[in-house]
Specification:
7% strand; 4-stranded mixed beta sheet; alpha+beta; Phosphorylase Kinase, domain 1; 669 residues; elongated; disordered C terminus
């Protein structure tokens, strides 16, 4: 066990954090298997360990209950004040005062509660304007701690006094947030930098609140059977992230990884980390001059399009959540700045999280199935995403999903936002055995926060209308087996090719900024002519056979009808199908391709010789020829029999095709 002096923070030692790759659902379940290390809050390489925290505070009854009663008393007096305002009809008049009181309460209670206030400060659809204005101050306008402590931390961490390390350093912090405060400085090499210094006694405040909230989560899960969500896991996820945020070396590594993954995106900027001047409690990074996205007048005065930067943020977030899985879990307005040259700068990389590959694919599939109102598949997605257990009976859930989302969507899925989705889902969460997995809490927090910023810029902002083009592009271009299988399920149902779904995907994907239609066509052709594409080839061949056969029959009937008309005789033609033919669909798709930016048919010319020599191409063509020949032969036999046996005339139905057996694959041959 390692313990360090805590004299600099003025607090007693508290547990450090040791987090395994999997979060623990409840301390009782793994107390025997985990070695408990109770570390000082200033120890290096802190990691979240709820077991260590629980053991530390179990013997401190007075400290824990003192905190609980303090929080309860503060909020109860605030709620009584709100109740009295309603009774005296003075809610509107006293709203600015109450908003300021709430900000002061959250500030007094410390970092865990400040984080809640920061999240609320981005929700104009939930919080009145007076509260928004006050809560926005929690982003970077909290009371600072004394310079003497900050400068002593710099000296302890970097090994020398600030005036010896930096050429310049502001004599007061320019911003103060929940975990630290920021000074503006200049290195002796000339670069302008931001120097972030951690607040003293931070771990002491946070661990006590996390312990109390976690115990409440354990109690709630045990005593309220209707709560099926993993509240304890959600608290552990939040605790792990917030303790990582207290290690500035981890934040520096996060910033560099974020820059590597997303810094190349158009108009996304990530500041540089200066490692020579960075340690656990001090972070030195490139100074960014910028304006919060919520300060619309200032942004517009600079000639910057705030709506465009919101789009940049949405596209970047989609890649964070659905492509690489490494995402910014705290994108409040203080961490997203519009730079003078019109770029979106990301700051504060302390609270980051990851989405596993199967979760990323599951989210993409869920969006696709939601947009296409495929509620059977959507219910299966909830199983994959761990909202439902595998043994859950989905039969009653599917119509419930259809009813809820049909009411919420009101005509078009692209017009729904994240808040609408969560609100509508809450209607069935308690009726059926849904549970919110721990990993999902930070995802929804990140999306809801970003959506709140977007709504402030554009009240009509709809997240799915912005997200679906990217999702459609991923579905068409991603070569992963999971998404290829999802694309196959989307395009084929009961052996029929759903051309309208393909048209919808192509129409939406062309609106994605980095969509390369030529790459899509090349990958599609390669996949179709691979062994994995055999199922699609067989089904597509059947559709082509049906389309050509139907077109041929219609053409023959039109000629026959014209001849009878010239002869002055009546002719009862068979009823023509009202469904669009395969040729109609193909022509519409060709039109879509031609309208797609960047489409160049000449890039496909070199592929033609490669396609023609493939044996799969020959089998595909042979399949179509054989199918057409069989249908023609069957029709000829029926015509001959009809002439000799009148009883068979009722069987003459030109709309009933003959199923053509698929040719065996080359591996079978």
């Amino acid at each position: 066990m390692q313990t360090l002096s805590s004299s600099d923070s003025g607090t007693e030692p508290v547990p450090g954090i040791v987090v395994e790759s999997e979060l623990h659902p409840a301390p009782e379940e793994h107390l025997k298997s985990v070695q408990v290390n109770v570390l000082d809050p200033e120890a290096v390489a802190q990691r979240y360990d709820p077991v260590a925290i629980a053991q530390h505070y179990r013997g401190r009854f007075l400290q824990v209950w003192g905190r609980i009663l303090s929080v309860f008393w503060i909020f109860s007096t605030f709620m009584v004040a709100l109740w009295w305002d309603r009774r005296t009809n003075s809610v509107e008049r006293k709203q600015p005062k109450r908003a300021a009181q709430l900000r002061e309460i959250l500030t007094t209670l410390g970092p865990a509660y400040i984080k809640v206030g920061q999240a609320l400060s981005t929700r104009p659809d939930l919080v009145p304007p007076a509260y928004l204005e006050e809560l926005a101050q929690l982003q970077d306008q909290l009371p600072p701690f004394p310079n003497e402590i900050a400068f002593r931390f710099i000296e302890e961490e970097l090994g020398d006094s600030p005036d010896q390390i930096y050429a310049e350093l502001s004599d007061h912090p320019l911003a103060a947030a929940s975990l630290g405060q920021v000074y503006k400085g200049k290195l002796k090499s000339g670069e302008t930098v931001a120097v972030k210094v951690q607040r003293p006694g931070l771990a002491q405040q946070i661990t006590l609140d996390l312990y109390i909230l976690r115990q409440l989560a354990v109690w709630a899960n045990k005593n309220f059977k209707r709560i099926r969500s993993d509240l304890v896991g959600i608290m552990d996820e939040f605790g792990a992230r917030i303790f990582e945020e207290m290690d500035y070396t981890q934040e520096g590594r996060n910033a560099e990884r974020f820059a590597q993954l997303y810094g190349h995106l158009p108009d996304v900027y990530v500041p540089r980390i200066y490692w020579q001047y960075t340690q656990r409690r001090v972070l030195t990074m490139e100074w960014i001059t910028g304006t919060k996205l919520t300060q619309l007048q200032e942004i517009r005065a600079q000639g910057i399009d705030a709506g465009y930067l919101v789009d940049v943020g949405v596209q970047c977030s989609l890649r964070q959540l659905l492509e690489h899985g490494f995402f910014h879990a705290d994108p409040h307005p203080g961490n997203l700045l519009a730079t003078p040259d019109g770029k979106l700068a990301y700051l504060d990389f302390g609270m980051m999280s990851e989405v596993k590959p199967y979760q990323r694919y599951g989210l993409i599939e869920a969006v696709v199935h939601l947009v296409n109102r495929d509620f059977d598949s959507l219910a299966q997605d909830y199983v994959k995403l761990e909202f439902l257990s595998p043994e859950t009976d989905l039969a009653p859930i599917v119509p419930a999903l259809a009813s809820v989302f049909d009411n919420a969507l009101n005509g078009t899925v692209a017009e729904i936002n994240i808040k609408s989705i969560t609100d509508q889902l809450s209607e069935i969460m308690y009726e059926f055995p849904f549970r919110v997995p721990a990993y999902y809490a930070l995802i929804i927090r990140s999306l809801v926060t970003l959506e709140g910023i977007a709504i402030n810029v554009d009240p009509n902002f709809k997240v799915l209308s912005k997200a679906y083009p990217y999702v459609a592009k991923r579905l068409l271009t991603d070569s992963s087996p999971e998404l290829r299988a999802s694309l196959q399920d989307l395009l084929f149902k009961n052996g029929r090719f759903r051309w309208n779904r393909l048209e919808n995907l192509l129409r939406n994907a062309r609106n994605s900024p980095d969509y390369d239609i030529n790459q899509v066509l090349e990958q599609t052709l390669e996949f179709l002519l691979s062994e994995r594409g055999a199922f699609i080839r067989d089904n597509l061949a059947e559709e082509i056979i049906k389309g050509i056969d139907a077109a041929g029959r219609n053409a023959i009937e039109q000629v026959r009808a014209q001849l009878w008309e010239w002869a002055g005789l009546e002719h009862q033609a068979p009823l023509a199908t009202t469904e669009p033919s395969t040729l109609d669909h193909v022509m519409r798709i060709i039109d879509l391709l031609q309208e797609t930016p960047g489409f160049d048919p000449m890039q496909l010319v070199p592929l033609i010789p490669r396609i023609l020599v493939k044996p799969e191409t020959h089998e595909f063509g042979q399949h179509i020829v054989n199918g057409l020949a069989q249908r023609a032969a069957a029709r000829l036999i029926r015509e001959l029999l009809l002439r000799t046996d009148p009883d068979l005339r009722g069987a003459n139905d030109y709309r009933t095709p003959t199923k053509t057996p698929a040719l065996p694959s080359r591996t079978a041959q």
